[in-house]
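Hi V.,

Quick status before I head out on leave. The structure for the redesign project is tokenized and pasted below; the design run finished overnight.
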């Protein structure tokens, strides 16, 4: 069965969803001898040059006729009509991450969680590269794993960011090291409840062997039920207590622990990224980098000279004493919380987009303490207005152009204008990157 997805011989495989991940899957299949039929319900989707046939529009059951397999892009739930029809017809269904794994010729370090995934993944790749290892950073960071195994099939390590959507179709996927950074309510419209969401995340280590590593946050109550659920070695990180295996930070000293033997590494003030959340990210990096054999010197260097990632609390410019910050990667309320707690200056907050249908009102007190004025955009405008009623003066801008214009008119010296939407981007943008790029372009054009 391992060869089923890797040896084409002209067999026809469908790819559902022709965005970035779907087109990458189509390319991997086509270059390995498969005939690819693409599906997408958006008639304006970019062309798929690797597809021999494309069906656009609302799917119908007979579209799967003649298929010998179906690969799902992360945005396509298993419960949607096309995969359901395939399952009922006895056609194997898999996902883009699982497909790429079948072609991978190097061990994998994988990162998932509700928040901090991209920063931790990129930081880990930076640390490994600084240690002289050949690294391919891919997955949910925006570079599909299917492309990575084509472009660089034999690195020393693949370092992957993995989402819960991608994990739904994981079957044999087995990382040598896997981290679950934290779990907060997110994507519940797809996973049903926190237990369903947690179970999806747990698939990252479901196939691990006794020599593999799983890294968990011992300070996160929602992650604690994952303890003991892996066959691999458990490594913990904490900012509150000493751990027996893993990494912790107490009184400013980052320490590596191995079977209770504690080795101080560095002072937390030397980390290149600030904030409690980034300290947690750094501890996870330390645990995973240890699996790759990275020594203390390379760890300290990589942790102290990493520049961060675009769209995550990224300073765009300072204009007339106002700091403009792009945090477009904030797609849920917990990531907004992290962003707000990163500033001790008055914040003018731009928020909104496609609602995640979570309890935004939980942030009311924090918004009232940290935010001077609120500017709302997108479909979630009225939902957020109700949730944060009375927390700060509020403006309804509609879109990003209006939001930046309003922010420019009300911001004063010492203020921070923070785009941290706490919502998905799909009401107005293709993805959070496009949203952040639009914000950046508008801010850079200000005079």
């Amino acid at each position: 069965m391992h060869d089923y997805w890797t040896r084409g011989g002209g067999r026809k495989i469908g790819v559902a969803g022709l965005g970035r991940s779907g087109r990458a899957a189509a390319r991997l299949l086509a270059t390995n001898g498969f005939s690819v039929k693409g599906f997408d319900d958006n008639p304006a989707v970019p062309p798929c040059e690797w597809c021999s046939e494309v069906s656009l529009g609302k799917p119908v059951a007979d579209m799967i006729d003649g298929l010998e397999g179906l690969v799902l892009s992360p945005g396509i739930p298993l419960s949607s009509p096309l995969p359901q029809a395939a399952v009922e017809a006895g056609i194997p269904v898999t996902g883009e991450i699982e497909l790429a794994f079948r072609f991978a010729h190097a061990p994998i370090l994988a990162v998932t969680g509700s928040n901090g995934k991209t920063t931790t993944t990129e930081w880990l790749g930076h640390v490994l590269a600084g240690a002289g290892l050949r690294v391919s950073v891919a997955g949910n960071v925006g570079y599909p794993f299917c492309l990575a195994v084509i472009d660089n099939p034999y690195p020393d390590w693949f370092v992957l960011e993995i989402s819960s959507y991608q994990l739904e179709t994981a079957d044999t996927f087995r990382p040598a090291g896997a981290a679950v950074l934290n779990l907060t309510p997110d994507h519940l419209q797809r996973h049903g409840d926190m237990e369903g969401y947690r179970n999806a995340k747990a698939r990252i280590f479901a196939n691990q062997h006794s020599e593999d590593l799983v890294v968990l946050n011992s300070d996160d109550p929602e992650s604690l039920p994952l303890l003991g659920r892996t066959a691999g070695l458990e490594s913990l990180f904490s900012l509150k207590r000493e751990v027996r295996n893993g990494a912790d930070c107490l009184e400013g000293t980052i320490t590596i622990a191995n079977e209770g033997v504690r080795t101080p590494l560095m002072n937390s003030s030397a980390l290149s990224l600030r904030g409690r959340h980034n300290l947690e990210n750094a501890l996870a990096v330390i645990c995973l980098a240890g699996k790759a054999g990275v020594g203390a010197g390379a760890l300290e260097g990589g942790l102290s000279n990493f520049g961060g990632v675009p769209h995550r609390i990224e300073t765009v410019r300072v204009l007339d004493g106002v700091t403009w910050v792009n945090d477009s990667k904030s797609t849920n309320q917990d990531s907004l919380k992290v962003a707000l707690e990163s500033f001790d200056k008055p914040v003018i907050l731009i928020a909104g987009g496609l609602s995640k249908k979570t309890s935004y009102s939980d942030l009311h007190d924090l918004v009232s303490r940290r935010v001077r004025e609120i500017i709302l955009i997108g479909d979630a405008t009225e939902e957020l207005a109700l949730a944060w009623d009375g927390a700060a003066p509020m403006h309804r801008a509609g879109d990003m152009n209006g939001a930046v214009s309003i922010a420019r008119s009300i911001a004063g010296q010492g203020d921070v204008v923070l785009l941290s939407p706490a919502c998905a981007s799909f009401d107005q943008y293709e993805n959070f990157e496009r949203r952040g790029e639009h914000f950046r372009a508008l801010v850079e054009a200000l005079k």
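Above is the designed sequence. The longest strand covers residues 261-267.

G. will cover questions while I'm gone.

Best,
W.
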